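Dear colleague,

Thank you for sharing your sequence with our group. We've completed the structure prediction you requested, and as agreed, I am returning the results in plain text so they can be pasted directly into your records. Please verify that the sequence below matches your submission; if there's any discrepancy, let me know and we will rerun it promptly.
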Amino acid sequence: MDEEYDAIVLGTGLKECVVSGLLSVAGMKVLHMDRNSYYGAESASLSLEQLWNKFRGGEETPKHLGRSNDYNVDLIPKFIMADGNLIKVLIHTDVVKYLEFKACDGSYVYKQGKIHRVPASDMEALKSPLMSFFEKRRARSFFIYVQDYEEQDPRTFKGRDLTRMSMRQLFAEFNLSEDTIDFIGHALALYKDDAYLDQAALPTVRKIKLYNDSLYRFAGTKTPFIYPLYGLGELPQSFARLSAVYGGTYMLNKPDCEVVYDESGRACGVKSEGETAKCKFVVGDPSYFPGKSKVTAKIARAICIMDHPIPGTVDAHSVQIVIPQKQVGRHNDIYVFCSSYAHNIAAKGKYIAFVSTLVETSVPARELEPGLALLGPVDYKFIHVSDYETPTTDGKEDKCFISTGYDASSHFESTVDDILAMYTRITGKPLDLDNLSLNQTVEG
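Please find the predicted structure tokens below.
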């Protein structure tokens, strides 16, 4: 271990593994360490036995649930946008060859006590029960405008400057109702709150176009989301494999990893078991850098084991439901994620559902109730609350590049934004994903 590296990465969470892989592909010498004996850290996938040990230590795993190893239960489940940046990173690094994906069956939004399939195009808007007859026509006009909008073609702007006009103003031009704005902003653009309404409209239009592009990325899919067979735990391991292919070194089960600093306070290595590995900078999750991050929120999550699909989803094996904040009198959305044995994450006939949100009160479990109420009968339920930490510096001075926590959303877009921002801070240049050839494909 007494060697010198370009980078030492601490923790094998998804963000750390992706950054490690990207740095290795870029030609850097990388050492990757983890205090745990398994990959994934906070974003690990657990067997049934591991799940029970974590949340019900001492209790025996119920035999009727099937074999422990038939379960791959994500601690932080998230769907992948089929044409989003994570897919582009998978293709850029060729990690896609280590993974198999299956499409998500349904994308729904909650309105006035019921769930409705999310319309993502002008034709779907005309059929949606979410809107009245006249509202459907207005929504169709809005979707046609967004679908036709091309940033390189001023003729498609129709006299609107979306870099100056706010999203609230754009919605007003199409006279859309508050409920329609709600599902567009939260179920299509996937915003977690309403701050976007008073910001420039262009980023939101891009997000809606991404949802639509992802919907048609693979033939025959009903939603813009895909999910790996055997759960998200496959992602960190696949990026770890990538890093190793490019010469990266991995060391698990290193419980005493400690960042070493020089006289100027810059990270210059990591010490473990009496040995010190030197490096130019250190990357890791907040738990490896005491005092260099702060808790900015708490996330409540429920993991539920069921023997049926979520009612009202046409027996979907996998589904996302967004409960917009205003529908339940909150400041933050509630997310429902469900997958099943069809994705090889549970025993035959079993479904795993998750409900998550940003904590707003002193009773987090109660805040999950609107999502839990949609699930129907639940066999077993585990509720946990975790800190959402953010680094206090950008790492450019102290050479400590620290990831943020994982938010409550049931999709990967904000996670990938953090990964790409970290890569840019480390290397001084953005990862160019726009010029990738997307002719390469993923099994859908």
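Summary note from our side: The chain has a mean pLDDT of 91.

Kind regards,
the structure core
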